[in-house]
Amino acid sequence: MSDLKLNGAFFQIHYMLDQHTECEKSEIVMIDVVKPFEAVAKFFTQKFTQVTKAYTREPFVVMLELKCLSPWPLAIETTKLELVQ
After folding, report:
1. Where in the sequence is the domain holding 56, given as residue range(s)?
2. For the chain, what is the domain count?
3. Considering the domain boundaries, does residue 76 fall inside one?
4. pLDDT tens-digit readout, 17-74
5. Residue 15 neighbours by CB distance under 10 Å
6. In angstroms, rounded to a whole number, what is the distance separating the alpha carbons of residues 1 and 39?
7. Contact at 8 Å (CB) between 4 and 38?
């Protein structure tokens, strides 16, 4: 799988066995991380002609294509579109 990446998490614990014996345990755990999805946005006029730009005060349609790359099912709970100038 080309999108598989390894990330490490460092864990360290200090504890006392009794009043005079202090112990420490450290460990690095490697975790496989997979890109969950790809998103591609396409823009269209109201007549569904694909365009590369949208202009102020001109209606347009955004079609978002999501491709699930995760081996587990995903539930997208919310999305939003932010317009920038």
Report:
1. 4-68
2. 1
3. no
4. 888 899 999 999 888 877 888 989 899 999 999 998 878 888 989 898 989 988 888 8
5. 9
6. 18
7. no
Whose structure tokens read 């109201």?
46
pTM, full prediction: 0.48
Q: Is residue 82 part of a domain?
A: no
Assigned domain for 83 exists:
no
Q: Supply the DSSP symbol for 47.
A: T
- Pairwise CA distance, residues 75 & 15, whole Å: 40
Residue 26: closest CA among 37, 44, 12: 12
The rounded distance, in Å, linking the Cα atoms of 70 and 33 is 10
pLDDT given for residue 1 in this prediction: 44
Where does residue 24 fall: left (phi above 0), alpha (psi -120 to 50 degrees), or beta otherwise? beta
Q: Is residue 10 part of a domain?
A: yes
46 Cβ contact partners less than 8 Å away, ≥ 6 residues apart: 59, 60, 61
